[in-house]
């Protein structure tokens, strides 16, 4: 879900919200709540782009070496200095070092205004590392001890997402509903309803999911969340194989204004309607609806519709050929926008792995626009925007013994490590490049849940279940890149003629 624009984030907690489970940062959305606004004091010590850079990290580590006592522990520092250094470490995903400063601040200044933000930082950093059992007590303490503050409400809200990731979706749904009861005007009230719906679905309680769809539609009538609840109903009917009900749900969305706060698009809804018609045996009607989705080089659902038209055969297959030829001409005209740099390094890296080098280029184009020195606010570096924690996890599989932050700017390191990670993702999600891209952006544990929720083995249906707005947008853009690279290059990256 999208955080309302009126919700102002403290910059330190904004940095926390930027940190995904792997590389890039999903926007705040369903079952992945963003950091809440913290005390105003945070504004005095937040990391600027300069502070969050490589020099700032080196400087913070130098100061920490100088500021340690005989026992090796951090010396007492002013609260703002603890927060400043924690923010620098956070921006570089040096989580244990950030936690050391937050923990020291809590111990040294138990009444300081930064204590709630420090608790949130500790909880969120464990959460990003997928150490959910360790994260949960910090969120619970925030909800218990700081219930009257935004940090407390946010911590309580985060308990639901954490419990969900501990494999307890029914408990997570109950916690979202408790948030709605405790904070009926809370910053997360709309998300709480919508996340409860998906949590009940994951718990196998479609009856309760339907109940909360109705409640959300009633509570948020005329708002984007009403459309999002309708979209949840459409996805539920598709997963349940209730094809005629799915068609009716799609038709109910005809009048929706598909703005940035609505978690779907007209093309996606139309595709799901066509898919339901096709599965119900209404092939002629399905073909007409697929045909109504315009296919362009950047249109994921147009592409999927063309594939279905091809499979329907007959006149629909001929229509698909016309559509595909038009896209091919469009891609050829834009060929200069799809280069294949570092060809030899890339081909060496994919050798013996189940990764198409054209897919790697598709990720690379989206991540860094082929800038070897690219660096994100979440501490991701280089062509494939690797973070140091993920790089260390996959370095050995890439034939590297040790990787440090600066190494990630080198293609001969960045590409093999990124390919190794992608190889692992393709093993987890075979024949689902959309899922691999969504994992790269939003974490494979989330994608595993979305795959289960989708039920059907259709890539477009899976894409509709991607629960993070940014991750869905990212995955569809990567797929558009991949379509272009497949048309322009052979599997050994020779330009097609």
Describe this structure in words.
- The structure is a single chain.
- With 497 residues, this protein is mostly helical.
- It has 3 domains: 177 residues, Serine Threonine Protein Phosphatase 5, Tetratricopeptide repeat (Alpha Horseshoe); 55 residues, no CATH class; 146 residues, Lysozyme (Orthogonal Bundle), CATH 1.10.530.10.
- The protein has 24 helices and no strands.
- α1 runs parallel beside α5, α10 runs antiparallel to α11 and α18 crosses α24.
- The longest helix is centred in the middle third of the chain and has 20 residues.
- The N terminus is likely disordered.
Brief account:
The protein has helices at 11-17, 54-66, 79-91, 95-108, 115-128, 132-145, 150-165, 169-182, 189-202, 206-219, 224-240, 243-252, 266-279, 283-291, 300-312, 314-333, 343-350, 357-368, 388-394, 411-428, 433-442, 444-454, 459-465, 469-488. With 497 residues, the protein is mostly helical.
């Amino acid at each position: 879900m999208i955080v309302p624009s009126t919700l102002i984030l403290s910059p330190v907690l904004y940095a926390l919200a930027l940190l995904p489970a792997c590389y890039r940062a999903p926007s705040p959305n369903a079952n992945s709540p963003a950091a809440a606004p913290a005390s105003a004091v945070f504004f005095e010590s937040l990391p600027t782009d300069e502070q969050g850079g490589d020099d700032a990290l080196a400087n913070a580590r130098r100061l920490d070496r100088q500021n340690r006592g005989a026992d090796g522990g951090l010396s007492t520092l002013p609260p703002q200095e603890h927060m400043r250094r924690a923010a620098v470490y956070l921006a570089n995903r040096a989580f244990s070092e950030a936690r050391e400063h937050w923990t020291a601040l809590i111990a040294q200044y138990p009444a300081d205004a930064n204590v709630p933000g420090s608790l949130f930082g500790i909880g969120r950093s464990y959460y990003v590392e997928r150490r959910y059992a360790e994260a949960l007590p910090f969120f619970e303490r925030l909800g218990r001890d700081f219930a009257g503050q935004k940090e407390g409400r946010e911590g309580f809200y985060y308990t639901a997402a954490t419990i969900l990731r501990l494999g307890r979706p029914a408990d997570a749904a109950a916690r979202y509903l408790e948030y709605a009861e405790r904070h009926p005007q809370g910053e997360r009230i709309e998300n709480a309803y919508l996340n409860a719906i998906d949590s009940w679905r994951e718990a196998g309680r479609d009856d309760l999911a339907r109940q909360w769809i109705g409640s959300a539609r009633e509570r948020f009538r005329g708002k984007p969340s009403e459309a999002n609840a309708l979209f949840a109903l459409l996805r539920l009917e598709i997963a349940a194989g209730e094809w005629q009900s799915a068609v009716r749900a799609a038709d109910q969305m005809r009048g929706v204004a598909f703005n940035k706060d609505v978690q779907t698009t007209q093309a996606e809804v139309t595709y799901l309607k066509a898919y339901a018609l096709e599965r119900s045996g209404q092939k002629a009607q399905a073909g007409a609806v697929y045909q109504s989705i315009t296919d362009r080089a950047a249109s994921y659902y147009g592409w999927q519709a063309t594939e279905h038209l091809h499979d329907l055969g007959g006149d629909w297959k001929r229509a698909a050929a016309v559509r595909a030829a038009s896209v091919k001409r469009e891609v050829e005209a834009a060929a200069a926008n799809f280069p294949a740099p570092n060809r030899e390094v890339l081909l060496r890296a994919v050798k013996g792995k189940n990764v198409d080098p054209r897919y790697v280029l598709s990720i690379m184009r989206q991540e860094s626009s082929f800038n070897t020195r690219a660096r994100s606010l979440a501490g991701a570096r280089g062509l494939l925007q690797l973070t140091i924690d993920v790089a260390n996890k996959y370095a050995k599989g890439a034939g590297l013994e040790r990787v440090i932050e600066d190494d990630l700017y080198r293609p001969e390191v960045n590409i093999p490590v990124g390919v190794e990670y992608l190889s692992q993702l393709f093993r987890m999600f075979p024949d689902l490049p959309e899922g691999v891209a969504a994992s790269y952006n939003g974490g494979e544990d989330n994608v595993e849940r979305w795959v289960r929720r989708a039920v059907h083995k259709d890539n477009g249906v899976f894409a509709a279940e991607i629960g993070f707005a940014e991750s869905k947008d990212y995955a569809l853009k990567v797929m558009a890149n991949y379509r272009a690279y497949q048309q322009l290059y052979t599997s050994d990256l020779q330009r097609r003629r």
